[in-house]
Design a protein that fits this description.
The complex is a heterodimer of chains A (about 160) and B (about 200). Chain A is of the alpha+beta class and about 160 residues long. Chain A has four helices and eight strands, in the order E-H-E-E-E-E-E-E-E-H-H-H. Chain A is elongated and about 55 Å long. Chain B has a seven-stranded antiparallel β-sheet. Classes of the chains: A alpha+beta (about 160), B alpha+beta (about 200). Chain A: This is Pleckstrin homology domain-containing family J member 1.
Chain lengths: ~160, ~200
């Protein structure tokens, strides 16, 4: 799949949501933890050798699971391949929690879903659509219909229909 | 620099059953070959994928849209033409993707769709709504809920119902999921067993 590496490198230079030097270990068996500068920019995680300006690599933080790992670390894995984990070592539990929270919230899909959730809740509580004030009530990406109806959702809702 | 392709393809494939933010045919001017090529474009979040045909399983390419400028091009050889200009940061980047829609209407739809893609924009909107929600909860003496980990609950809502009705519906779903989870597990089985109920994003 083609992508413009320069675009990705430019993205890595944009202001970061979070950046720190962490220990990092790749998913391959026998890989060794190395110190890396890890930088969260929008929904991408970049990692650099600590003394270099160009990133070594980037991960797209969508459909991923971020889990705390004992002691004082966390892992990122992707839903399609949960055994393949990228491990990170933090210097404190506090830093660990800060990162896991930030990474979880970095997903575009998570943010969209959360926005729709709050929109719905606010509408229930006030009778008003909070997106109206921004003039974006009709924007496709913020409609309930834009949310996935995966297999589990379809099964649950059909079971509910049976009960009703 | 390595973009971990699996993370991107995982996203691409994982959402293939979900309607994208926008998709359709666009003409794309090649980087070296300056003729326009017909491609199938798929917009998801702040990523624009393109492939040769609609039915293809793997994208040909990917355009990162964060901080991009999208503008119609009035003097292009193709009608309904527009440009996606990627940002230039500290001397890196800054490429103009020359695209064209196949009708005025499609041009309008794409310009509209591309205008709101930014992750940062979404973050600002989200934080505002989240703050508004918490204030409302505080005023009502209500414990704020967190957005659900998956979309099951939201997907079953078409119209906001009364809080009581929703409370009962959620309770039903939770009890059903708990019941099926217990049924599927048996003591002494190896750890490889049950699928997680909630999927983290």
């Amino acid at each position: 799949m083609r992508y413009n590496e320069k675009e990705l490198r430019a993205l890595s230079r944009q202001p970061a949501e979070l950046a720190a030097e962490l220990g990092m270990r790749g998913p391959k068996k026998g890989s060794v933890a190395k110190r890396r500068l890890v930088k969260l920019v929008v929904n991408f995680l970049f990692y650099f050798r600590t003394d270099e300006a160009e990133p070594l690599g980037a991960l797209l933080l969508e459909r991923c699971r971020v889990a705390q790992e004992e002691p004082g670390g966390f892992s990122i894995s992707f839903v399609e391949d949960p055994e393949r984990k990228y491990h990170f070592e933090c210097c404190s539990q506090e830093q660990c929690e800060q990162w896991t929270e930030a990474l979880r919230r970095a997903s575009y899909e998570y943010m969209r879903r959360s926005l729709i959730f709050y929109r719905n809740e606010i509408q229930k509580m006030t009778g008003k659509d909070p997106l109206e004030q921004f003039g974006i009530s009709e924007e496709t990406r913020f409609q309930l219909s834009s949310l996935p109806r995966d297999g589990q959702s379809a099964r649950v809702s059909s079971r509910l229909d049976e009960l009703d | 620099m390595k973009l971990h392709g699996k993370s991107v393809l995982s996203f691409f494939h994982g959402y293939r059953t979900q309607a994208p933010d926008q998709e359709g045919i666009l003409l794309k001017k090649g980087a070296r070959n300056t003729s326009y090529q017909r491609r199938w474009f798929i917009l998801r979040g702040n990523l624009l994928f393109y492939q040769e045909h609609q039915a293809d399983h793997t994208p040909l390419g990917l355009i990162l849209l964060e901080n991009c400028q999208v503008e119609p091009r009035l003097k292009a050889t193709e009608p309904y033409a527009f440009t996606i200009l990627t940002p230039r940061m500290e001397g890196v980047g800054g490429r103009a993707y020359k695209l064209a829609a196949e009708s005025q209407e499609e041009l309008g739809t794409w310009l509209c769709a591309l205008a709101g893609v930014s992750w940062r924009r979404l973050a600002v909107l989200l934080s505002q709504l989240e703050a508004q929600y918490r204030e409302l909860c505080q005023a009502a003496g209500q414990e704020p809920s967190s957005p659900p980990e998956n979309c099951d609950f939201l997907a079953t809502l078409s119209v906001p119902s009364s809080f009581q009705e929703l409370h009962e519906r959620f309770g039903k779903e939770i009890r059903m999921l708990q019941a099926s989870d217990k049924g599927g597990r048996s003591p002494g089985k190896s750890g490889a067993g049950a699928q997680p109920v909630f999927v983290d994003e």
